[in-house]
Amino acid sequence: MNTRLAPCALLLLALPACATDPDPCAEATARVAVCFPDLAVASSSATCDPELAEVIAGSSCEDLAARDGKADDWTCAWMPWLCLGGGGAGGGSTQPGIEVAVMECGGDFAGSCPYVQSATCGLVTLHDSTGDEVARVFSNGNGRATFFGLAEGAYQVRVHKRDGALARMQPDPLSSATTSASQALTVGGRTTPWADFNLVPGSQQAITQCADADGGITVRDSAGVEVDRREVEWEWLIELERDGEVLERTRPLFLHHEASSSGVDENVVSFRLLRVGTYTVRYVRMEIPSYARRINPDYAQLRRLYSADVAPIEHNLRVSNAQRGRTVTIDRTLTDPLR
């Protein structure tokens, strides 16, 4: 159920503002919100550094994501969830926060929770001591969510189903007893508290706010003859974009007929954890030499170096509220402009 990070919405993100014109801090805030929409910063008392903000604002989502696990100053200042162990150059937590793990109990033993698996794209809300919601975020492909930049004090973390009700969880893996998915935590000191939710079986489908997109492409030449699917895998690159930002790149993977459910050769494409909204699916004709065709390639680099000098083919993909928890089909037949 793990997947690459996919686009999200509906969260509160507040980073410190700077009195500059144009405002690099506001631009950095917008960039982080687009690139890491499933990670929330509720508030922060840190002083904005315009130089660090310019670095963030001028970086692509892929550049920022590539810094995962780094603990340099600008990463920790703007994206504390990427710091090693939650700590920055100073060695401690850069901002008080709460880590959340949203899991679903699995197994065949009724009433127990022998193992868990990630529950993705579920709404997680943070509430202060008065019960008011102060931030919201969605569990990512690993079932993780993070709230950073919190004032010290008492909080409640809650996990919701799509219908708005609280999900149910099993606090004790050896007991069939369940309770509402709400936990009280206290933020303070240098230790980041964890809120672990082991939701009852079936919760993944009940909580997800996302859809998946599955399908493939068939490519024909100018005479209408189908192009060899092994060649198609490396002659096309597919981008998923929303609000002007490329969220993911992939290639139409060749699947031999003996391994496909259809019994015929295929070029398959899939995207995970798509929020409600409109996306652009872009099919880019590539000219990738054989020596650059590697397992797990750097798709951004391939795009820069080997994209053909022809216009990409674009289609809109709309994910509606009714499609949450379902799979959207994205099958396409393309005409190769170079054949």
Question: What features would you highlight for this structure?
Answer:
single chain; 339 residues; alpha+beta; Immunoglobulin-like; 2 domains; 5-stranded mixed β-sheet; 15% helix; disordered N terminus
Walk me through this protein's architecture.
The protein is of the alpha+beta class and 339 residues long. The protein folds into 2 domains: 24-207, Immunoglobulins (Immunoglobulin-like, Sandwich), CATH 2.60.40.10; 211-335, Sandwich (Immunoglobulin-like). Helix content is 15%, strand content 34%. The protein contains 7 helices and 20 strands. It has helices spanning 24-35, 50-57, 61-65, 73-78, 203-207, 229-235, 299-306; strands at residues 40-41, 97-106, 115-118, 123-127, 133-138, 144-148, 153-160, 168-169, 179-180, 182-187, 194-199, 211-220, 236-242, 245-250, 253-255, 266-274, 277-285, 313-319, 327-329, 332-335. Strands 1, 2, 3, 6 and 11 form a 5-stranded mixed β-sheet that branches. Strands 12, 15, 16, 19 and 20 form a 5-stranded mixed β-sheet that branches. A hairpin with a 2-residue loop joins strand 13 and strand 14. It is globular and about 65 Å long. The model is unreliable at 1-20, 41-47, 67-73 and 81-94 (pLDDT under 50).
